[in-house]
Amino acid sequence: MTPTSITPTSISPTSISHALVLRGVTKTFASGPFGRGTRHTAVDHLDLTVPAGSIHAILGPNGAGKTTTVSMVATLLRADSGEILIDGVDAVADPSAVRGLIGVSGQYAAVDGNLSGFENLRMVAQLYGMSRREASARAREMIDELDLTAAADRPMRTYSGGMRRRLDLAGAIINRPSLVILDEPTTGLDPRGRRQIWRAIDELTRTGATILLTTQYLEEADELADDITVVHGGAVHARGTPESLKREFGDACLTVELTRTGALRHAVDVMTTLAHVGSGNPEQLDEVRFRVQVDGGTRSAVAAVRALDEIDADVVDASVTAPTLENVFLALTEPNERAAGEPGDETERVDDVR
Ligand SMILES: Nc1ncnc2c1ncn2[C@@H]1O[C@H](COP(=O)(O)OP(=O)(O)OP(=O)(O)O)[C@@H](O)[C@H]1O
Questions:
Q1: Does residue 232 contact residue 64 with C-beta atoms inside 8 Å?
Q2: DSSP sequence for 180-207
Q3: Which pLDDT score is estimated for 109?
Q4: Measuring CA to CA, which residue among 153, 151, 107, 156 is closest to residue 128?
Q5: d(CA 204, CA 212)
């Protein structure tokens, strides 16, 4: 993974090369027969900048507009308005030029199930205009890189889900695109299959490729992404590095275990009075444990434990867990989104971005 850290507004257009720029991109769909019903805005004035060679993840709940966004970047859908630039080429005005610059996952896995993985890839390479010899060499190279050597000459219909995904990824990158678009590349894979794809994606960035990724798996974004944009209702809600988002929007959690005679109810009542030191509402986990968010990290965890000590609560164990991207996701996409604090150095709220 490239250790790039960006602050979108702090990057001057000349200071860094952007593989992908979206400005004010909007897409609406009409409902009802013949598209005559009400219009629904799937993507709403979306701005995004992705530095060359980095991995950018778009996160959001179902229906947030992720697939619509990547489909517009992939020239599979036309934006209603706004600008999409890939390596400086306008995807709306010149989609065919852009198609030579991008690779899109999900399009190659089922080319022909009776052909072997190698034959499928060679065919895709030839479709990109490579000679048969060049296509064969490139297909073999991809097969080896994606760990498919042993199965290369078997009919593709015998491949497992994970192998198909890797073959699909090989098809998406066989033409050495500068921007690779991966829409939920590991959905449905088991943990081993997922990790194999992660390794392949990581390897890909070493060749200088830029990756735009959507995923439902927060640990996937955490593992792979240099930067994350959280979208909700078609608009950007926040963006930053995984770490800056966790710092800004995720809360650490204090879990406390008392002895059986440790007066849990009383302890929980005391916790509810500690909002002034950054504790949230305590949640009772069982008859001896409760959990409470501690906005102020260690400081509020220490204050909480002190308060328990003052009431002789018989604490057996108290541990603080670091915020996760899941906390961030939930905080930013819940229906009554909490009023998040001021943006940190590396994290932006949508109001700051537009
Ligand atoms: N072709 C279409 N016609 C009408 N509405 C559409 C169409 N495609 C998407 N939408 C709507 O646009 C919104 C965004 O959909 P999109 O598929 O981009 O979301 P998503 O974030 O990818 O969701 P998911 O995680 O469920 O795949 C949704 O409300 C969806 O119903």
A1: yes
A2: EEEESTTTT--HHHHHHHHHHHHHHHHT
A3: 59
A4: 107
A5: 12
Q: β-strand 18-30 against 315-321: which pairing, if any?
A: unpaired
Sequence letter at residue 240: G
- CA 180 to ligand 1 centroid distance, Å: 21
Q: Which CATH code, of 3.20.20.70, 3.40.50.300, 3.40.50.2300, 3.30.497.10, is assigned to 8-101+177-247?
A: 3.40.50.300
> What are the phi and psi torsion angles at 291 (to 5°)?
-130, 145
Q: Does 251-322 match 8-101+177-247 at the fold level? A: no
**Ligand 1 in contact with 66 (CB < 6 A)?**
yes
C-alpha separations of 208 from 51, 108, 354 in Å = 11, 22, 29
Amino acid identity, position 183? D
Bridge partner list, 103: 180
Identify the DSSP state of 161.
Answer: H
Q: Beta strand 210-214 with 179-183: parallel, antiparallel or unpaired? A: parallel
The secondary structure of 7-46, three-state, reads: CHHHCCCCCCCEEEEEEEEEEEEECCHHHCCCEEEEEEEE
Confirm if 214 and 57 have CB atoms less than 8 A apart. yes
Q: Spell out, as residue ranges, where the chain has pLDDT lower than 50.
A: 1-15, 336-354
Q: Find out whether 212 and 201 touch, Cβ atoms under 8 Å.
A: no
β-pairing, 210-214 vs 55-59, is: parallel
* CATH class of the domain at 251-322: alpha beta
Residue 144 makes CB contacts below 8 A (sequence gap 6+) with none
Nearest atom (ligand 1) to Cα of 234: 14
The answer to whether the CB of 188 is under 6 A from ligand 1 is no
Spatial distance between the Cα atoms of 117 and 169, rounded to a whole number of angstroms: 12
pLDDT tens, position by position, 36-93 = 678 899 999 999 999 999 999 999 988 999 999 999 999 999 999 999 999 999 998 9
Mind listing the pLDDT tens digit for each residue in 152-194?
A: 999 999 998 889 989 999 999 999 999 999 988 888 888 888 8
Residue nearest to atom 1 of ligand 1 (CA): 29
Domain range annotation of the chain: 8-101+177-247, 251-322
For residue 83, how far is its CA from the centre of ligand 1 (angstroms)? 20
Complex confidence, ipTM: 0.97
